[in-house]
């Protein structure tokens, strides 16, 4: 597991635990994947693995958040606490990391979204983004190739 993905997972877990401990109202999650061995390939490599089964998009997930065309949502969780909802999402595609990362670098710089940071290192694309109209709506995103499948992992906090 790369440091970027590990950081995304740790951040999401911290937000989820704090949100629940602070009197969170709701918590739900869907996951179609189980634990698996992770191998990282070249970022230009197009995936040749098998996508996990799809799960349902949370009803209140922001409809204007860019989703890579053809990507399958395979993990989704939602935690609401103290007026903020945090989403943990994972999409999968067989397209390469560079292509998918380029999509997010472009789309998170348009509309109501702005990039605070984006970059690539060791075959992983990562980004920090926020909403232009409300910078309290913010998140992190990582894109990496895992066992022949490109994973897009995002944690997004939205103020209610």
List its salient traits:
single chain, 160 residues, alpha+beta, 7-stranded antiparallel sheet, 2 helices, globular, disordered N terminus
Task: Explain how this protein is built.
By secondary structure, this protein is an alpha+beta fold. The chain has two helices and seven strands, in the order H-E-E-E-H-E-E-E-E. A seven-stranded antiparallel sheet has the order 1-2-3-7-6-5-4, sandwiched between helices. A hairpin with a 6-residue loop joins strand 5 and strand 6.
Stretches with pLDDT under 50, minimum 5 residues? 3-8, 10-43
- Total DSSP helices: 2
How many domain modules? Answer: 1
Q: Tell me the β content.
A: 35-45%
Largest sheet: 7 strands, antiparallel
The SSE string, one letter per element, is HEEEHEEEE
Gap from first CA to last CA: 33 Å
Number of strands: 7
Given helix and strand content, the structural type is alpha+beta
Radius of gyration: 15 Å
Overall residue-averaged pLDDT value: 82
Helical residue percent?
10-25%
Which SSEs are present, and which pair or pack?
Elements: H1 3-21, E1 26-31, E2 72-81, E3 84-93, H2 97-107, E4 113-121, E5 124-131, E6 138-146, E7 149-159
Antiparallel strand pairs: 1-2, 2-3, 3-7, 4-5, 5-6, 6-7
Summarize the structure.
The chain is α+β, with helices and mostly antiparallel strands. It is 19% helix and 39% strand. It contains two helices and seven strands, in the order H-E-E-E-H-E-E-E-E.
